[in-house]
Specification:
alpha/beta, Rossmann fold, 6-stranded mixed beta sheet, 3-stranded mixed beta sheet, 8 helices, 9 strands, disordered N terminus, disordered C terminus
Length: about 240
């Protein structure tokens, strides 16, 4: 997986010392929810550089890591919630103190997308009494199976607009858009501006500046005057061939 690193800057002129310390030391919690078999665990594992265990998630799994897409890195927690948590009373506990709720659906499974309506309604009801609401986002997984797409792009855009969701599409299998999505979400939570790094080459390193073109060599005339031709003839009796 190739990471593109970003530098972020905080406007310290508008922040108190306590707010600045809180921004630098804050742990961002991202809770990943959605229907079973949408690839939530694989998405978390891909972002943290690990491997998702098979067999599905039981309850919820909390993983610690860092958002390496920002410099300096931001500590975070990823809470991977099982797909059947919607029918239990534990969902509220899993969502406690979360900064971002990421709703994941399977691009090849229309039902997984349609059921997000129930997920969002439930999540919003949990945070209804809270003054500070979490950031809500949606991620369409399995873009590597685009030829099997069952969810229309226009439906996703309309859904995201109606519920004020950040909208992403990518693949936990290939890593497409995974790092970008999490980096943007973390940056939004801590209120920083993300400045893109220079374009990276295929090996993940920034391309070095191209050297200036070498000065052109002076062209030699292919036409000899009479004096030059006589000097050549005196120096050699062989035939002179200009190539």
């Amino acid at each position: 997986m190739v990471f593109i690193y970003y530098n972020y800057t905080v406007n310290k002129n508008t922040m108190s010392d306590s707010e600045e310390d809180e921004t630098q030391n804050r742990i961002v919690k991202i809770t990943v929810v959605g229907e079973p078999s949408t690839g939530k665990s694989s998405l978390c594992a891909r972002y943290l550089g690990g491997t998702a265990a098979g067999g599905g998630t039981q309850g919820a799994e909390v993983m610690a890591g860092q958002c390496l897409g920002l410099r300096p890195a931001v500590p975070l927690q990823l809470c991977d919630v099982a797909g059947n948590a919607l029918a239990t009373r534990m969902l509220e506990n899993y969502l406690y103190a979360t900064d971002v709720v990421l709703f994941v659906y399977d691009l090849t499974n229309l039902q997984s997308f349609e059921n997000l309506n129930t997920w969002i309604t439930t999540v919003k009801s949990i945070f209804e009494a809270d003054v500070k609401k979490p950031l809500l986002a949606v991620f369409g997984n399995k873009s590597d199976l685009e030829h099997q797409r069952a969810v229309r792009l226009s439906c996703v855009q309309k859904f995201a607009s109606e519920h004020l969701l950040e909208n992403y599409k990518g693949s936990a299998r290939t890593g497409e858009m995974v790092n970008t999505a999490f980096t943007n979400l973390v940056a939004s939570v801590i209120g920083v501006k993300v400045r893109a790094a220079p374009p990276a080459a295929s090996n993940g390193r920034a391309r070095p500046p191209e050297p200036p073109p070498a000065p052109a060599e002076p062209r030699q005339s292919l036409i000899m005057n009479r004096k030059a031709l006589r000097r050549v003839q005196r120096a050699s009796s062989s035939v002179c061939v200009l190539q």
